[in-house]
Fold each of these.
Amino acid sequence: MGEPTVDVEEFATALVEMKLAYPHQLRGCGEDDVAQVVESANGFPLPEHYLAFLRRLGREAGRLLLGTTFFYPDVLRVPAATAEFIADAAPDLRTEGRFFFAMHQGYQFYFFDRDHPGEVFLYTEGDEEPVVVGATLIEYLWREAEGASAVSGLRLHGDRYPS
């Protein structure tokens, strides 16, 4: 992974090439939207790849992460939903020094950890510990896109994708 803005732009291009999104479905956040997400992090230092992602794809990215609360403005409700889940179902899950930025179907929670800058962690209800799912957000999203592409019968790498 390189420079965050370049990495995100390459990823956006790949989403269209993989037929996971049409160009008009790639919508980023404005600076006011990004500022709201930063504010919701309550001083947590958000990774540069995440900020670049928000600016380029933060509102919509085609079929990427369908069923996951991840895009703006829904991302703003993730911390409160996570706190409610933890109080009810996972009281031992530590929240201090973490920023929860996505949840899937109310039982999987994605977060960044201050002690491991940039890495993406996933906690799934019933698991003892969270696991690392990406060294950066873009690395994690590439895996998700590859999986979605494979399910669609498309190849990630190669000369051309079927039309």
Amino acid sequence: MNKTPMTAQGAQRLREELARRKTEDRPRITQAIAEARAHGDLKENAEYAAAREQQSFNEGRIADIEGKLSNAEIIDVTKLNAGGKVVFGATVEIMNLETDEEVTWRIVGEDEADPKARLISINSPIARALIGKSEGDSVLVKAPGGDVEYEILAVRYE
């Protein structure tokens, strides 16, 4: 099976969520199920049904995280020597040449992507256009809304 690239920070966040789900959420849900069982008839017990649904979601998420971590190729960007080129994990400051709008993106794995936090997937159109380029280069991004040209202002490995 192919390994999926993941930043060290992304892997750490997943490990923390996994630990929380196993040590805090799982016992809390188990306690809620036990309390709901004590109320009697399980067929008409909404608390029991809700607790079982929570348990199912939590166990599914635990399995999902364990799978992602086992298939992850963890890349520590701070230890990369990419010679100023845009690579997986790099933080890239770009400027839209049409609007002069500047934006900073960090290129991360699919499971870590969060556009609101300025984290974009390695498979996104912007990331694919930026990979392999250097500071000062212009890139053409073929976006769903049309082609956009950017200039790379800075490349950092944080």
